[in-house]
């Protein structure tokens, strides 16, 4: 009877350690490899870096367009830009322009 209690005490203790180590192992694995783990964090940071680069390119393009648009405002029209846009839209050329035809 006493031996049985001792064995049961050892088995219960080992079982508790085994279950708790399995739970800790499960959570550690998913903390590293899970959908919100450390590896996923590096993937998200890489995607964020790519999006920031694209945002910087779009911001610079927008500034270029805003600068060109400011040249065409009513208060100060840039004649060269106006003439360039008129030729492009109307498909006209000046008599002194050289036209190179491609294939």
What do you see in this structure?
This protein has 103 residues and is an all-alpha fold. Helix content is 76%, strand content 0%. The chain has 3 helices and no strands. The N and C termini lie far apart (102 Å). The mean pLDDT is 87.
Give me the strand/helix succession: HHH
The profile of the biggest β sheet is: none
Task: Return residue spans where pLDDT drops below 50 for at least 5 consecutive residues.
Answer: none
Total beta strand runs: 0
- Give the percentage of residues in beta strands: under 5%
Rounded to the nearest angstrom, the radius of gyration is 36 Å
Distance between the termini: 102 Å
* Molecular shape: rod-shaped
Helix share, percent: over 70%
- Alpha-beta content class: mainly alpha
- Mean pLDDT, as a whole number? 87
What is the count of DSSP helices, taking H or I runs of 4+ residues?
A: 3
Task: Provide the fold topology.
Elements: H1 2-33, H2 38-71, H3 79-90
List keywords for this structure.
single chain, 103 residues, mainly alpha, 3 helices, 0% strand
């Amino acid at each position: 009877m006493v031996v049985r209690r001792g064995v049961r005490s050892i088995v219960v203790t080992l079982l508790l350690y085994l279950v708790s180590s399995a739970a800790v192992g499960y959570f550690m694995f998913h903390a590293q490899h899970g959908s919100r783990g450390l590896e996923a964090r590096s993937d998200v940071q890489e995607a964020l870096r790519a999006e920031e680069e694209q945002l910087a390119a779009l911001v610079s393009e927008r500034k270029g367009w805003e600068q060109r648009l400011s040249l065409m405002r009513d208060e100060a029209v840039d004649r060269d830009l106006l003439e360039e846009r008129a030729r492009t839209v109307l498909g006209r050329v000046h008599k002194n322009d050289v036209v190179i035809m491609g294939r």
